């Protein structure tokens, strides 16, 4: 019984590791997987996998945002691109997702038509259906 609890605890700790502590290959694989899941939930028409996504690391300034909230917190941007010969959007990407490094939770998803959705860390909807952003090649919705 002790061995089972040890293995479960080890698995939990390894899964909850900060993304910065992983190898680049592991981290990028996890980030792309989370991003894909996020785009398919919030705007499935904007998912593209035929161009390698760009991954960038960022950090909230020490002053934080909206006061001291999230000060110095690390996040990653995963940006999915499209072929401009095939389609045209307001932005040069189909979607861009910000993911917190410490929790592996998406924080923001932006779509190529200009729509931005801020994802709360604690999902208060509890099972309510979410209506995804429809794919739209028209210029910005803003």
Give the gist of this structure.
The chain is an alpha+beta fold. Helices cover 23% and strands 22% of the residues. The radius of gyration is 17 Å and the shape is globular.
Overview of the structural elements:
- The protein is α+β, with helices and mostly antiparallel strands.
- The protein is built from two helices and five strands.
- The chain has helices spanning 2-15, 24-42, and strands at 54-59, 74-81, 93-100, 106-111, 116-118.
- It has a five-stranded antiparallel beta sheet with strand order 1-2-3-4-5, covered by helices on one side.
- The radius of gyration is 17 Å and the shape is globular.
- It starts with a helix and ends in a 24-residue tail after the last strand.
- Mean pLDDT is 83; it is low at 1-15.
Distance between the termini: 57 Å
Shape: globular
Which structural class best describes the helix and strand composition?
Answer: alpha+beta
Which sheet architecture does the biggest sheet show?
Answer: 5 strands, antiparallel
Q: Low-confidence segments, ≥5 residues, pLDDT <50?
A: 1-15
Q: Could you tell me the radius of gyration in angstroms? A: 17 Å
Secondary-structure element order, N to C: HHEEEEE
Helix content: 10-25%
Residue fraction in strands: 15-25%
Question: What attributes characterize this protein structure?
Answer:
142 residues, globular, 22% strand, 23% helix
Present the secondary structure layout.
Elements (H helix, E strand, L loop, with lengths): L1 H14 L8 H19 L11 E6 L14 E8 L11 E8 L5 E6 L4 E3 L24
Antiparallel strand pairs: 1-2, 2-3, 3-4, 4-5
